[in-house]
Specification:
The chain is built from 13 helices and 7 strands. Strands 4-5-6-3-7 form a 5-stranded parallel β-sheet, sandwiched between helices. Helix 9 crosses helix 10, helix 11 packs parallel to helix 13 and helix 12 packs across helix 13. It is elongated and about 80 Å long.
């Protein structure tokens, strides 16, 4: 995922502050330990001075002396831990402690972004789309199967809407578990209020909690972002375009509510096709039928959706009235 330079620098300042705080806390612990247990300082000074000798022995190739010195240092380190434990302190009391032990508060592991970096990165991206506020209420913890009618059959095989939504819930849970493996796509169809946006936000929140990057846009906002990028040679707009194409999941809400023309048709196909090529997932919600999508956006857009998307029609009364 792309960040603006300002956002990247702001995240790195967080890591700089974490590292300063890690070192400050270590110095506080050292002062306390040395005051209470002077022997520890003596041992630490010894380890520090002897460790300097190892570099000279390495340069000189004196392997036997180097091995003997390392053994001595290991014994002293062991004694330090014993003293700490004997006095009711953890054995790592005189070692750096990190907010994120995986990257040691650097943000990167072997040149790749740590999950803690990605989590902060996602917060910026969610804030841009306001989805961070939405998913506090619209998530699977608030999914209530009893809101769906369990009496009246809605499908030819006699299943009720509650039966049907149980199956959809289980499918979506499995889809989330398999997200990294299959990079699937979903399109929710149905009339206003049947829960399309709610389910999309539930999925977005679940993936966000697993450190995946998500961009949520209404169809109007999606096409407007491309239009702005064309009108302005702007670095930020280009980064938004990169984010739309590169994020782990792109959510397009209310497809069909935008002003439709040849430009939106070409951009929609471009986005769907590019994300398919790079194995990036898309979720779409729409009130349109497949025939209407074909008529509005062309045969090739419709064909792309039919061939690459799990299409989930939603039924029932307007859930927002309950």
């Amino acid at each position: 995922m792309s960040l603006t330079n300002a956002q990247f620098n702001q995240i790195m300042r967080v890591y700089d502050e974490r590292q300063r705080e890690d070192n400050r806390q270590l110095e506080d612990r050292r002062r306390m330990a040395y005051q209470k247990l002077p022997e520890l300082k003596t041992l630490e000074d010894f380890v520090r001075s002897e460790s300097l000798k190892t570099f000279r022995l390495m340069r000189e190739g004196q392997k036997d002396k180097l091995s003997a010195l390392k053994s001595v240092i290991e014994e002293v380190q062991k004694r330090k831990k014993e003293i700490l434990i004997e006095n009711g302190l953890p054995e790592d009391f005189l070692e750096l402690r990190y907010s994120c032990p995986h990257c040691r508060d650097t943000g990167f592991i072997n040149g790749k972004k740590c999950h803690c970096f990605i989590e902060m990165q996602m917060k910026y991206l969610y804030q841009q789309s306001n989805i961070d506020k939405i998913v506090k209420d619209q998530n699977f913890d608030h999914f209530d199967i009893n809101r769906y009618d369990g009496v009246k059959p809605i499908l030819a095989d006699g299943r009720t809407n509650r039966d049907y939504m149980k199956e959809n819930y289980e499918f979506l849970q499995q889809w989330i578990r398999d997200f990294d493996k299959y990079h699937g796509n979903i399109m929710f169809t149905g009339s206003t209020g049947t829960g399309k946006t709610f389910l999309m936000n539930c999925i977005a929140k679940a993936l966000m909690d697993n450190y995946h990057s998500v961009i949520y846009l209404t169809s109007t906002d999606l096409f407007e972002s491309f239009s702005k990028a064309m009108r302005n040679d702007d670095e930020e707009q280009q980064e938004i375009q990169d984010a739309i194409l590169d994020c782990d999941l792109l959510v397009i809400d209310d497809l069909g509510t935008e002003l439709n023309n040849s430009y939106t048709t070409s951009k929609l196909f471009y986005v769907l096709n590019q994300r398919m090529v790079f194995h990036k997932s898309v979720i779409i919600s729409t009130n349109l039928s497949l025939n209407m999508i074909r008529d509005l956006y062309s045969e090739r857009v419709c064909s792309r959706i039919i061939s690459d998307y799990s299409i989930i029609p939603l039924y029932g009364n307007d859930q927002r009235l309950y």
